[in-house]
Amino acid sequence: MRAANVSSLLRQLRYPYATWQCSVPASPYAAAKRDLTKQGLASLPGSQGWERRFRMGTSSQQAAASASAESYSTAEMCRAVEAELGKLSTAPSIPALEPVKVVISGPSGVGKDAVIKDLQAKRPDLHFVVTATSRPKRPGEVEGVDYFFVSKEQFEEWIRSDELLEWALVYGEYKGIPKTQVLEALARGTNVIFRLDIQGAQTVRRKFPDAVSIFLVAESEAALVKRLIDRKTEPMDKMITRVETARQEMQHIGEFDYVVLNKDGDLEGAVQQLDAIITAERQRTHRIRWHDSAPSQLPSRVAAPEKLPEMQKC
Ligand SMILES: Nc1ncnc2c1ncn2[C@@H]1O[C@H](COP(=O)(O)OP(=O)(O)OP(=O)(O)O)[C@@H](O)[C@H]1O
């Protein structure tokens, strides 16, 4: 009986869903009082307080909300809303999100490996796509973690059997991405991060047009060269080639979605920027997998996609 009265009263006062959050539209005192009296609710606990507060100058919105909160439980209020609007859906507002594909590129020595290593420690939700390379292992590098170190013959066999998402011959050594790990990670719904040179980034963006591409830079060419020298991994002739290539690569910044500065001594700052970009990109509405919901559960303001997005085959 009481629930029916509550429902009826709330309907007359046109309370929206979040009445207890004080978002009730203004309602003139006289009309509200008349409604209460008509419903025989003027003497219900709470309605007196509501009236007193109204007279003391509290806005009708606050007073009505306060009266509701004092008199009726959340469950009762929900039932009132359902009586007006039909059953409230408990389906998740965001059914699932498409994984993000992040491409990190930038000149040799800028710090791609360094930022990705720290980013991985910060974000276990990222699958770092391990590149295969025919170059020799550097001190401290771990097979299957930093790279897959394979012979030139093995690499050429992969190229022949089309097992690579992209590959290139860089500074006389093969570099490329075995397809399987990427497709498996995406199928699991895991975000993936690629570390690629300009050419590789172009290929991956062509294959995954929704990939988010980030170009990493040092504060200057001089800072970049100093980093390369301090790394002590390249003889002088190879280093000069890398710096020449870096000059050409800098011409491609405009092809990328974001540019991040990896400032000397502030690796953490660059990692934080990357983290923020990935977090924001993950929440883009076009990543919502509406096809995981029944059409009746779609929010009314969002039209169901005419064609469901499909994972692009490589
Ligand atoms: N913010 C930074 N400040 C100082 N040194 C840095 C910074 N970021 C990276 N480094 C150092 O610079 C050197 C180059 O970094 P890293 O090897 O990660 O570059 P890379 O872009 O992966 O290079 P490559 O493409 O040649 O593999 C490393 O010795 C690394 O420790």
From TrEMBL:
It is an enzyme of class 2 (transferase). Residues 292-314 are annotated as: Disordered. One of its GO terms (cellular component) is cytosol. This is guanylate kinase. It holds the Pfam family Guanylate_kin. Keywords: ATP-binding, Kinase, Nucleotide-binding, Transferase. InterPro entries: GK/Ca_channel_bsu (IPR008145), Guanylate_kin-like_dom (IPR008144), Guanylate_kinase (IPR017665), Guanylate_kinase_CS (IPR020590), P-loop_NTPase (IPR027417). SUPFAM superfamilies: P-loop containing nucleoside triphosphate hydrolases. Its EC number is 2.7.4.8. Belongs to the guanylate kinase family. Residues 99-279 form the Guanylate kinase-like domain. GO terms for molecular function: ATP binding; GMP kinase activity.
